[in-house]
Structure formats: C-alpha cells, structure tokens
Design brief:
With about 280 residues, the chain is an alpha/beta fold. The protein folds into two domains: about 200 residues, Spore Coat Polysaccharide Biosynthesis Protein SpsA, Chain A (Alpha-Beta Complex); about 70 residues. The protein has ten helices and nine strands. Strands 1, 2, 3, 4, 5, 6, 7, 8 and 9 form a nine-stranded mixed sheet that branches. Helix 6 packs parallel to helix 8 and helix 8 packs antiparallel against helix 9. The longest helix has 24 residues. The chain is globular, with a radius of gyration of 19 Å.
Length: about 280
C-alpha cells in the first residue's frame, strides 16, 4: 500500500534510527527503499543487517530530489511516504494518516504535526510554522510549512506533477507542495507523529545562504507554467516582490552587486524573461 523512500547522504549516524522507525509502524503494508546518494561514510555496511526488510540503492551524488525521485521509480505502492534520514516516525504515523484519508478521494496528500529536536534538545516551532488543512496554497507561500518526512501522497498525483525538481539544491519540497496545493486540498493531521532532528552542519539550510532565492525560482516557475488561478497569481506576485527584496538586501551585504540588482529588478515587477536559475548553481554565490 505504501512505498517509503529514505534518501541519505553521509548520515550513517542517523539513518539506522530512521529505518527502525519505519519497521516499528503499526501499519504493516509497506515497502522500504533507502537511496544512498553517494555516501562515503560506510552507510551501506551499517544497513546490511536490514537487507531482508529494505532495498538499498546506491547512486551517484546528485542531491536529495534526485534520490527521492529515483526511490519513487523503484517502488510500486499506491501511496508514497518520504522520510529524511535524520528524522524519525512515531509508530502510528502511517496508520493514522491512512485513517484520515479514508473517505476523501479528492485529497491526495496528508501531512502531520511534528516534534522538533535541535542538537539533542526539544524546541518549539514558531507561530509562522502553524499548519492548516484544506485549500492552503496561499498559506504555503511565505515558507515551507509541510515537512517531507510527514507527508503521505498519492503516487498518481506525485507523477502527474513531475515529482521533485532536481534543479533546486534546496527548497525542493516548498516547490512541490506549492504545485500540489495550487490544485488540490490537503489534510493536516493535528498529531505529532514525526521527530525532526536538526541542528547538524550538513543541513541544506546551513549549506546554502539566502533560501528565498530558491523559493523565488519556484514561484516564477509557477507563473511561467500557468499553473495558478488569477487570484493565486496575484498572491504569488506579492510574495515574489517580498522575497526578492529580502534576497537583494542579503546580496548587497555580501558585496554581490550584480545579484542584488537582479533581484531588485524582479522585485519591482520585471521578472518576465529573467533567469534566476544561474544564481542557484553556486551555493556560496
């Protein structure tokens, strides 16, 4: 029923916990694939004792989006669940989500509340991370309120929308959830059923400065793809202006005048034909 995909890269210290949290699920009808995105820390050897209950796929280092997409192609469940290798599921996670989705064929995605742990200590999310059910597209514009580790999504909708965008080195989840919520309602299950373990130096939010650059690219892609209604389009334009102003200010502080000018131009409304993708290639740019 459920295909579980765990992408991992040099997280041998975490991935076993993630795997075991899947195996502890009260819902037993699942398959598990771990996609190793080119680890060099002995991840394969650490997972060897679990070979009877998961498939291990090793690929070249192409990023988390490519790893997740590969995992989808290598599985066959009606529903897809993603679990980051540094996160954990509580035992009833899948069971409770399937119960919530029952009788709602129009809703292709269910996500849950979460427990946050930073550097081993539990912390409380801020008000801006508040989560919602229903048609939540505009609530998803400021930042990503849906954790990849919390979602259960119908495979056919994931495939219909093209999966994760492998061009984005970060905020790839923000991009996908916007594409989904622009077309479908979703269910938020108000139960803390995942543990997000953060604060380590290899997190994408630590590696890349100015995450709003990636969000701007996702928003412009939405407009260029004609995927939004007129009302949604106006909300996207407002968010583009707001985020571009933030990125332009950050670029000035970093001494990158060219980038500051680009995002200031887009912020003023002149985004047609501008290619923001080149600014995403170098994480230190």
């Amino acid at each position: 029923m459920v295909s579980v995909i765990i992408p991992t890269y040099n997280r041998a210290a975490f991935v076993v916990g993630a795997v075991e949290s899947v195996m502890a699920q009260t819902l037993s009808d699942w398959e598990l694939v771990v996609v190793d995105d080119g680890s060099t820390d002995g991840t394969e050897a650490i997972l060897a004792p679990y070979s009877g209950r998961l498939r291990y796929i090793r690929s070249g280092h192409r990023g988390v989006s490519a790893a997740r997409n590969l995992g989808v192609w290598e599985t066959r469940g009606e529903w897809l669940a993603f679990l980051d290798s540094d996160d954990l599921w509580l035992p009833r996670k899948l069971e409770r989500q399937m119960e919530a989705l029952e009788g709602h064929p129009e809703t292709p995605l269910c996500y849950t509340d979460e427990i946050w742990v930073r550097k081993g200590r539990r912390v409380n999310p801020g008000k801006r991370h508040k989560k919602y059910s229903g048609w939540i597209f505009e609530r998803c514009l400021p930042l990503c309120i849906i954790s990849p580790s919390s979602v259960l999504i119908r495979r056919e909708v994931f495939s219909e929308l093209g999966g994760f965008d492998e061009r984005l080195p970060a905020c790839e989840d923000y991009d996908l959830w916007l594409r989904i919520t622009s077309r479908y309602p979703v269910i938020f299950l108000e139960e803390r059923l995942i543990v997000k373990r953060g604060g380590h130096p290899d997190q994408l939010s630590t590696i890349h400065w100015g995450l709003d650059r990636f969000r701007v690219a996702a928003l412009i892609k939405l407009l260029q793809g004609g995927m939004v209604t007129p009302v949604q389009r106006e909300a996207v334009l407002r968010e583009i202006r707001r985020k571009c102003a933030i990125v332009a200010g950050g670029a000035r502080k970093r001494g990158n005048v060219e980038m500051a000018q680009l995002y200031a131009k887009i912020s003023s409304g002149d985004w047609e034909g501008e290619d923001v993708w080149e600014t995403l290639e170098d994480p230190h740019r």
